[in-house]
Amino acid sequence: MDITTGGAFLRAVSTRLPNLKLLTDPVDLDGYRHDETAYLEPPPPLAVALPTETAEVAELVRLAALHRVPIVPRGAGSGLSGGAVAVAGGLTISFMGMNRILEIDPSNLVVITQPGVINAVLKRAVALEGLFYAPDPASTEMCSIGGNLGTNAGGLCCLKYGVTRDAVVGLEIVTATGEIVRLGGRTTKDVAGYGLIPLIVGSQGTLALITEATLRLRPTPPARATLLAFFPSLVSAGDAVSALAAAGVEPCTLELMDRTTIRAVDDDHHLGLDHAAAAMLMIESDLPGRAATRALEIAEAACLGAGAASTIVAADQAEADLLRQARRLAFHSMERLGVARMEDVGVPRGRVPAMLAEIEQIAVEQALTIATFGHVGDGNLHPNIILERDDPDGRAKLGRATDALYRAAIALGGTVTAEHGIGTSRRGYLELQRGSAAVALMRAVKTAFDPLGILNPGKVLPDA
Predict the structure, then answer these.
(1) Helix residue ranges per DSSP H, 17-116
(2) In what helix (H) or strand (E) does residue 375 lie, and over which residues does it extend?
(3) Half-sphere exposure of 82 (CA within 13 A, CB side)
(4) Rounded to an integer, what distance in angstroms lies between the CA atom of residue 23 and that of residue 47?
């Protein structure tokens, strides 16, 4: 876009939306270039808009379409795929000003919310009504509901309760032409027409902009009982995951941390974890009373049978909460070790041991530190590639390591992203995983929703 077009667009926005907060100062714009994905260097946006109402979003989109200005929707900026990074000459729309919980409806077990509400804030609000919002990303205290919807975020308890898409029953969206459309509602079951909600959730703002969501709630489950199991090797921990499934254990949380992660987390939080262990599983049950105790007994036996060196049951709820919070902060502990790039591969649960072995082999072959943690119960692993902060070859090393990781996951029948999204950082591998015919269908969908190509261009789909 040339300067004349950008200037005309900004003048039109100021005229049509005089009360809209619009940032154009280079100092302000710099903070909206990035998300949390390391080693991306996007340009600053043309401007940043901070709407508070759907009508403002719709008018912004109409003006952007008229002037052919690309739009990048943005939540809290905590994403790890480059999905919200700025586009040259584009308008970034920050939804953090749309941060109201509009209604909690206990009779229908739903909450209606704007996209700028922080996940943990929503959880606490519905908890006051005795209700539970299940999607539970590790970044719950900082990520927004809109960002969760954009990436179809998972989290620590999605093994039992599902990912964000499973909690969505209704959306309000703004289309690429600026039309406001409502999808779904409060009904538990609805199969009228094509399923547009599952298509939009996870599309990272490339098909429509989400301005409101109706989300499914549940009654608050019992407090969780927590078991830690320490293993002499990553592969034996992976074997334990298979043993747990075979034993019929259905935990609400099944998380893995490898040796590097255990040590980094323990150095930060002083939990007394076993620094000699190669891996640790955190297994939680939220079944009522004795059922949870029995589930952990079965889980402990399965872990010991798979080769666990030791096990620990959390003494009380406070200790369990502390251990869970330490797992949530694992990525921040990794960042203390250097520049950490968190990856997001997923494989079938039965192939978790094989993927863990592949990660270890890649680390050896590439002479890199790769710290792995993740939602191992559903096969979602987060290998963290850690590089020295001033390494001049860091980008090249990262490229070789991620290429090896992605190809290994695909070869095992898995995915290059389980919950963080394709975004910018993984779009070159979409066709390798999905195939050219599937990507052609995706391009047709994109064209139908966004014929001008202004919604988050350069994200998700590879270049044609």
Answers:
(1) 26-30, 54-67
(2) strand 369-375
(3) 21
(4) 6
CA–CA gap between residue 110 and residue 14 (Å, rounded): 37
Map tokens 């919070």 to a residue. Answer: 325
Please tell me the CATH superfamily of domain 225-411, with its number.
Answer: FAD-linked oxidases, C-terminal domain (3.40.462.10)
The helix/strand/coil state of 128 is coil
Domain ranges of the chain: 3-94, 101-219, 225-411
- Cβ(210)–Cβ(172) under 8 Å? yes
For residues 178 and 197, give the distance between their C-alpha atoms in angstroms, rounded to a whole number. Answer: 18
Name the packing angle between helices 234-246 and 352-366 (round to 10°): 170
Structure confidence at residue 2 (pLDDT): 58
Which amino acid appears at position 175 of this protein? T
Amino acid at 57: V
Residue 156: Cβ-neighbour burial (10 angstroms; 0-12, 13-18, 19+): buried
137 in Cβ contact with 331 (< 8 Å) = no
Query: Domain 101-219 class?
Result: alpha beta
Maximal C-alpha separation, the chain: 70
Question: 42 is written with which tokens?
Answer: 């996007």
d(CA 35, CA 52): 21
Report the 10 Å Cβ neighbour count for 62.
17
Q: Which amino acid is at 368?
A: L
Predicted local confidence at residue 280, as pLDDT: 95
Intervals of the chain under pLDDT 70: 1-4
Asked if residue 418 lies in contact with residue 345, where contact means CB atoms within 8 angstroms, the answer is: yes
CA distance 358 to 72: 36
Angle at 352 between CA 346 and CA 358, to 5 degrees: 85
Q: What DSSP character marks residue 157?
A: T
CA 26 to chain centre: 29
User: Could you tell me where the DSSP H helices lie in 338-429?
Assistant: 352-366, 394-411
* H/E run at residue 369: strand 369-375
CATH code for 3-94? 3.30.43.10
Minimal CA–CA distance to 97: which of 48, 63, 135? 48
